From TrEMBL:
Its cofactor is FAD; FMN. It catalyses: sarcosine + O2 + H2O = formaldehyde + glycine + H2O2; sarcosine + (6S)-5,6,7,8-tetrahydrofolate + O2 = (6R)-5,10-methylene-5,6,7,8-tetrahydrofolate + glycine + H2O2. Its EC number is 1.5.3.24. This is Sarcosine oxidase subunit beta. It is an enzyme of class 1 (oxidoreductase). Residues 35-79 form the Rhodanese domain. The lineage of its organism: Bacteria, Pseudomonadati, Pseudomonadota, Alphaproteobacteria, Hyphomicrobiales. It comes from Rhizobium indicum. Coiled coil: none annotated.
């Protein structure tokens, strides 16, 4: 596969960019693979990439019911941060941030990781105390996070409104400078390209309808719209549909699927230099490189598999953003969309082995799994290859819902992005 570099760009420019290779070939499934991954989102494609690049396992298929990156990977608001409260989460998300920093070079594909910083606004005394607790916990874990006074926050993000009679006055903010955004599609495309170049088959438009097991209970392969595919190992990374797929193997997961929406405004000149989140008003905002304001909030209140979500939540989100940034009150919104997120009782992921030999699962990322993509994919590939957890994903077991050893980020972040 042709590498992207200055010389090749120049060479192809001279021939009108007509001779670039296909980025990843369209494949029909083989009868058998060492590993079949269900779900060609960032997590599934990333796991395939690391299986091939770090463990030399290339007889791998990644199968998606739709198009590659068409799930939550291509629908999210791309916020990346690692300022989670608990040690287990801090290690996992910070591992991901470490990988984000070198991902474009690693994949030879520009994922547009933009380290622009994330401000979490405090509007009440409780917010101030809670964020300071986060900052101390983060620092103990080597995760960057610091407290800004409201004046310092305004200096960092000039559109902030500090007027004392605001409905949600800003009392200060926690700042993680390594946080930021990346281009979501490019993450899926970069991993797909890297995996395909190493021999991985990416099979689109092929729903997996069931997981077949052998008489001894171990995994035998997957039933698909294109027939049965035998596999020594099956790894499921199907986000909002993971519980549906896993149920066909007889594994019940503690997951609930909710619509999560986002929306963007008309494009404007660069005005918004960072990411701003407010747990109190339950909304967050950043500006894309195209100039659109990218806005999101929490999930709908009810479970559903509709990829749309309800209008009241959008109204609430916009009202919240305008409360904090009156400067945007005449902006027009261009479009909104939704995805289906898989939420666990403690709002932390399940990443590892299952009770079925040869069956692995990576799910439960809820509203915040994009930021984890490289770290989760990297440790998931390790677990699949070695049939044992990587030290970083070891706490994220399915077993914790039996033992009660939860990683309770539900209480730690009202907006779990
Ligand atoms: C609106 C919105 C905003 C978000 N904002 C953020 C954010 O700012 N920051 C953040 O960190 N996270 C965010 N998230 C969450 C994040 O997008 C997800 O946690 C993450 O992308 C999950 O990646 P994935 O690869 O596991 O899933 P996906 O990208 O959803 O991939 C799963 C794939 O499985 C496929 N699939 C499902 N069932 C089957 C089947 N039966 N057979 C074959 N294939 C199947 C789907 O088609 C899909 O392509 C947001 C999500 C949404 C919806």
């Amino acid at each position: 596969m042709t590498r992207f570099n200055a010389l090749n760009l120049l060479r192809h420019a001279l021939t009108g960019h007509k001779h670039w290779d296909e980025q990843w070939p369209q494949k029909e499934p083989k009868a058998e693979y060492d590993v079949v991954i269900v779900g060609a989102g960032g997590h599934g494609l990333g796991a395939a990439y690391y299986l091939a690049s770090q463990h030399g396992i290339t007889n791998v298929a990644v199968i998606d019911k739709g198009w590659l990156g068409g799930g939550n990977t291509g629908r999210n608001t791309t916020i990346i941060r690692s300022n989670y409260l608990y040690d287990e989460s801090a290690r996992l998300y910070d591992h991901a941030v470490d990988l984000w920093e070198g991902l474009s070079q690693e994949l030879n594909y520009n994922v547009m990781y933009s380290r622009r910083g994330c401000l979490m606004l405090a509007h009440t005394v409780h917010d101030v105390q809670s964020f300071k607790r986060h900052i101390h916990a983060n620092r103990l874990n080597g995760v960057d996070n610091r407290w800004l006074t409201k004046e310092e926050a305004k200096e960092y993000c000039p559109p902030l409104d500090l007027s004392p009679n605001a409905r949600y006055p800003v009392m200060g903010a926690a700042l993680q400078e390594r946080a930021g955004t990346a281009r979501h599609d490019a993450v899926a495309w970069g991993y797909a390209r890297g995996a395909a170049a190493r021999g991985v088959d990416i099979i689109e438009n092929c729903p997996v309808t069931g997981i077949r097991r052998n008489a001894d209970g171990s995994v035998a392969g997957v039933e698909t719209a294109k027939g049965f595919i035998k596999a020594k190992k099956v790894a499921v990374s199907a986000a909002g549909h993971t519980s549906v797929v896993m149920e066909t193997a007889g594994v019940r997961l503690p997951l609930e699927s909710y619509p999560l929406q986002a929306l963007v405004s008309e494009p404007i000149k660069p005005i918004f230099p960072c990411v701003v989140m407010s747990n109190a008003v339950h909304a967050y905002i950043s500006q894309s490189d195209k100039g659109e304001l990218v806005i999101g909030s929490g999930t709908d209140q009810y479970m559903s598999y509709s990829q749309r979500g309800g209008l009241p939540l959008i109204e609430h989100t916009i009202a919240a953003i305008v409360e904090i940034f009156p400067i945007f009150n005449r902006m027009r919104m261009l479009r909104k969309w939704g995805g289906i997120v898989d939420v666990t009782p403690d709002r932390s992921a399940i990443l590892g082995k299952t009770p079925v030999p040869g069956l692995y699962v990576n799910c439960g990322w809820g509203t915040g799994g994009f930021k984890a993509t490289p770290g989760a994919a990297h440790t998931f590939a390790w677990t699949i290859a070695k049939n044992e957890p990587h030290p970083i994903n070891a706490p994220f077991t399915l077993e914790r819902f039996r033992s009660g050893r939860l990683i309770d980020e539900a209480a730690a972040a009202a907006v779990a992005h």
